[in-house]
Amino acid sequence: MPRTIVKTRAIVLRTMRMGETSSLVTLYAQEYGKLKAMARGARKPKSRFGAALGLMTEVQAVCYVKETRDLQTLSECALLKPAPDLSQSLERLSFGSAACELVDRLTIEGEGNSRLYQCLAGVLHGLAEVEPEQVESLFWYFQLRAAAALGYRPELRQCITCQRELVGPSSWFSAALGGGLCAACGPGNGVRLAQHSLRFLADLQGLRTYSKEALPQAPSQRGEIRMALRSFLEYHGGEHSRLKSLDFLDGLNKAALPV
């Protein structure tokens, strides 16, 4: 089968060393979805790829694609937008890495999703702009938008079993059933969430687009929200969707706790 030349806008999700001078690059392309390609000579001092293959960069890539192969060939790669400056904090950098990891782990090669591409591009540059107290809220917003783009948007305002409005001091959340459960339907079917946590997620999900003015700061009690969103995405993505970047951030947070 002949090779097809593909020219597309893409975001670099991951790079790995291959041999002495080459790199294995995972791209998320605007029209074609995830692509894995070999960039030959990418690590040479005078490589034609230059700085275009850094994590989180947005590029114009040219690939030789053959459907019968899992690994394609990256021919050209021009830098369109440099990686966002997330050096302000390890938290911002970890969430940026986690966003790329999430897209890498929850998608398969060759299935384009322009909504997901826009979500990823938006969160990466948003992480460099928002206030410190908004950083995790933005990542949660991305997780909810990514879930919707992939076809499994959770229901957060009505009980997914009886369709009653979720009210009262607490509700439940079931990754398997796809959202919130009322006090009558929830016990035994999910994890318990304070009502203000579920309402916070519902309000985030309702934002049409991210902006510093509209994005709320993350609440002080964040553990149950993190657990609910991670369990939801891991349920849909399987055991391999656990994000190492978030595990790393959890380790830093635990180390910072007073003894």
* Poorly predicted spans: 255-259
Total helices: the number is 6
Fraction in beta strands:
15-25%
Indicate the overall shape. Answer: elongated
**End-to-end separation:** 62 Å
Tally of strands:
8
Strand order of the largest sheet: 1-2-3-5-4
The assigned structural class equals alpha+beta
Topology as H/E string?
EEEEEHHHEEEHHH
Radius of gyration: 20 Å
Helix fraction by DSSP (H/I, runs of at least 4): 25-40%
Mean pLDDT equals 88
Biggest sheet overview: 5 strands, mixed, barrel
Task: Please give a structural write-up.
The protein is an alpha+beta fold. It contains six helices and eight strands, in the order E-E-E-E-E-H-H-H-E-E-E-H-H-H. The strands form two sheets. A five-stranded mixed β-barrel has the order 1-2-3-5-4. A hairpin with a 3-residue loop joins strand 1 and strand 2. Helix 1 packs antiparallel against helix 2. It is elongated, with a radius of gyration of 20 Å. The C terminus is likely disordered.
Summarize this entry quickly.
This protein is an alpha+beta fold and 259 residues long. The protein has helices spanning 90-106, 114-126, 135-149, 195-206, 223-237, 244-256; strands at residues 4-18, 22-29, 33-39, 58-65, 72-81, 170-174, 179-181, 191-194.
Write the layout of secondary structure elements.
Elements: E1 4-18, E2 22-29, E3 33-39, E4 58-65, E5 72-81, H1 90-106, H2 114-126, H3 135-149, E6 170-174, E7 179-181, E8 191-194, H4 195-206, H5 223-237, H6 244-256
Parallel strand pairs: 3-5
Antiparallel strand pairs: 1-2, 1-4, 2-3, 4-5, 6-7, 6-8
